[in-house]
Amino acid sequence: MASFQKKSLIATAAIFCCRFTGLLREMVYTALFGATAALDSFLTAFRVPNMLRDMFAEGALSQSFTSVMSKVEKQEGRDAAWKLAHQVLSQLVSLMLIIVGLGVLLSGVFIKSLYPERAVAEFELPPAIAAPAAPSVTAVYNGSETDADGRVHASFTLNTPLDMQAVQPMVRVSRLAKYSPGETVTLTTAVKAPADMIRVEPQSFMGLAADLCRIMWPFILFASVSALSMGALNVFGVFGIPNLASAAFNLTTVAFGCLFGWLIDPAFGAEALYGFAIAVVMGGAAQVLFQLPALRRKGYRLKWHLGLSMKGWKPVFADPAVRRIWMLMVPGVIAAGITQTQVFINTSFALYLPGGAVTALSGAFHLWQLPVALFGVAVGMVVLPNISRMSLQRGNDDIPRHLAQAMRFVAFFAVPSAVVLGLWGQEIVSLIFQRGRFDAQASATMGQVLGAYCIGLLGYAGMKVLQPVFLALEKPWAPAGLALAACCISVTLNYCFVHILGLGVMWLALTTAFVTTLNFFFYFFYLRHLLGNMACSVLLPGLLRILGAGAVLVVLCWQMKSIFFDGFVTWGFFPRLLGLAVGGAVAGGLYLAACFFFRVPELEAMARRFLLRKK
Question: Does the pTM of the predicted model rise above 0.85?
Answer without folding.
Answer: no
